[in-house]
Design goal:
Shape: globular
Pfam family, one: peroxidase
Binding site for heme b: 197
Active site: 72
Order of helices and strands: HEHHHHEHHHEHEHHHH
Protein name: Peroxidase
Radius of gyration: 21 Å
CATH architecture of the largest domain: Orthogonal Bundle
Number of strands: 4
Strand order of the largest sheet: 1-2
Helix content: 40-55%
Distance between the termini: 16 Å
Low-confidence stretches: 1-29, 337-351
CATH class of the largest domain: Mainly Alpha
Number of helices: 13
Mean pLDDT: 85
Largest sheet: 2 strands, antiparallel
Strand content: under 5%
GO cellular component, one term: extracellular region
Bound molecules: protoporphyrin IX containing FE, 2-acetamido-2-deoxy-beta-D-glucopyranose
Length: 351
């Protein structure tokens, strides 16, 4: 009975929060800064780094998915952890098609558990993801940057939104530039952050359209180096029943290096969206410069652009929550219907 009334009052609080939520122009949200948890969770960065390093030592192939996960989080509803949410009816962002290869959710849970032990109820899942993304990048010998924190977690995860908001691999330069611009990101951010493709893998299905009958004349995408296209066709047979995996930066998929730009310059970018960086004067100038100088400014630029990407001030702003379990929302709000308690309270697990 005591438990019941506790849950009941929790529900009432949650309903209140639900109504207070979602003012899309919440004033005063600008709290992102380095060291946001200095007082409230002083060992946060240490905990995240320790677990990230442990994971990278045994499963370095998770670096790519974890970096990409932060990108996906930020591009749908701003960086507010909604990419992490599970939906009982499989309608969350992570169920959308572009998710395909999103992996590593269990790593975020692992970090969250450790962080909750040290400082319960303080650190958002979105901040944990942003910090993990930095630490796995650094662990792959990539750049290190100061992560700004102070995000709050959103309560809504919507598959359709993910479908519309994530840029597809076949996007042209106009779509890419606009997609970045829409999120307050520059053309430079676009070319710099695309360099994230220096690590990780892709499914064949993300680019096979470029390999077979691209223009309807039985040919490959003319913007792709023909020798490279041939190699890719071998890895991705046309009628393959399996969706094979391909290294995006062959030979150094586990090293965050500058070879991505050399590849693009040689017309060996895997996706149309990579190759498209040659179709704009500014992005082309940047990548040619990086290719010629062995990426003289890439690491510094990447850190700056990651901070820019992490700034997204979309909702929930200061109205969000500090989620206790990164995969479970406190209240799922159906935007079209108002508050809607879908998530059984039992999902919180033992308290
Ligand atoms: C500019 C628009 C972008 C497009 C169209 C795009 C598209 C893709 C696609 C289609 C894949 C392969 C998914 C699969 O088939 O498994 C991929 C993988 C990846 N992307 Fe992007 N991406 C973009 C930007 C970014 C950004 C900004 C980052 C991070 C800074 C990033 C990091 C990654 C990483 C690390 C992987 C490898 C994932 C793995 O190893 O599983 N991408 N991207
Ligand atoms: C780029 O793609 C968009 C969306 O598919 C399309 O509307 C536009 O015409 C394309 N632009 C160019 C220059 O090809
Ligand atoms: C290539 O595409 C064209 C136009 O869509 C089609 O007529 C043709 O049959 C295709 N060829 C092959 C080998 O699939
Ligand atoms: C949200 O509301 C819309 C419109 O009433 C409805 O079609 C949809 O099924 C609802 N979604 C969920 C997850 O309850
Ligand atoms: C999900 O997003 C789409 C597109 O913005 C919207 O039409 C739909 O109502 C949303 N679904 C829910 C359950 O809010
Ligand atoms: C990890 C994950 O949730 N993957 C899903 C991505 O989307 C496809 C297609 O909708 C689902 O089948 C996967 O389960």
């Amino acid at each position: 009975m005591a438990n019941f009334s506790r849950y009941l009052s929790l529900q009432i609080i949650l309903i209140f929060l639900a109504f207070a939520c979602c003012n899309h122009h919440a004033a005063g949200y600008g709290g992102l800064r380095v060291g946001f948890y200095e007082q409230t969770c002083p060992h946060l960065e240490h905990i995240v780094k320790e677990i990230s390093d442990q994971v990278m030592a045994v499963a370095p192939s998770l670096a790519g998915p974890l970096l990409r996960m932060h990108f996906h989080d930020c591009f749908v509803r701003g960086c507010e952890g909604s990419v992490l949410l599970d939906s009982p009816t499989k309608q969350a962002e992570k169920d959308a098609i572009p998710n395909l290869s999103l992996r590593g959710f269990q790593i975020i849970d692992k970090v969250k558990t450790a962080v909750e032990e040290a400082c319960p109820g303080v650190v958002s899942c979105a901040d944990i993801l942003a910090t993990v993304a930095r630490d796995v990048t650094a662990a792959m010998k990539g750049p290190y940057w100061e992560v700004e924190t102070g995000r709050r977690d959103g309560r809504v995860s919507n598959m359709t939104e993910a479908l519309f908001n994530l840029l597809p691999p076949f996007a042209n330069i106009t779509t890419l530039k606009q997609g970045f611009l829409d999120r307050g990101l520059s053309v430079k951010d676009l070319v710099v952050l695309s360099g994230g493709h220096t690590i990780g893998i892709s499914h064949c299905s993300s680019f096979t359209d470029r390999l077979y009958n691209f223009t309807g004349k039985g040919d490959a995408d003319p913007s792709l180096d023909p020798n490279y296209a041939e190699k890719l066709r071998m890895k991705c047979p046309e009628a393959s029943p399996t969706d094979n995996l391909v290294e995006m930066d062959p030979g150094s998929v586990r090293t965050f290096d500058t070879s991505y730009f050399t590849l693009i310059a040689k017309r060996r970018g895997l996706f149309t969206s990579d190759a498209a960086l040659l179709d704009d004067e500014e992005t082309k100038a940047y990548l040619v410069q990086q290719a010629l100088t062995h990426g003289s400014t890439f690491f510094k630029d990447f850190g700056e652009s990651m901070v820019n990407m992490g700034k997204d001030r979309s909702p929930p702003g200061d109205q969000g929550e500090i989620r206790k379990v990164c995969t479970a929302v406190t209240v799922i709000i159906n935007a079209s219907k108002g508050p809607n308690l879908l998530s059984p309270l039992g999902e919180f697990g033992p308290d």
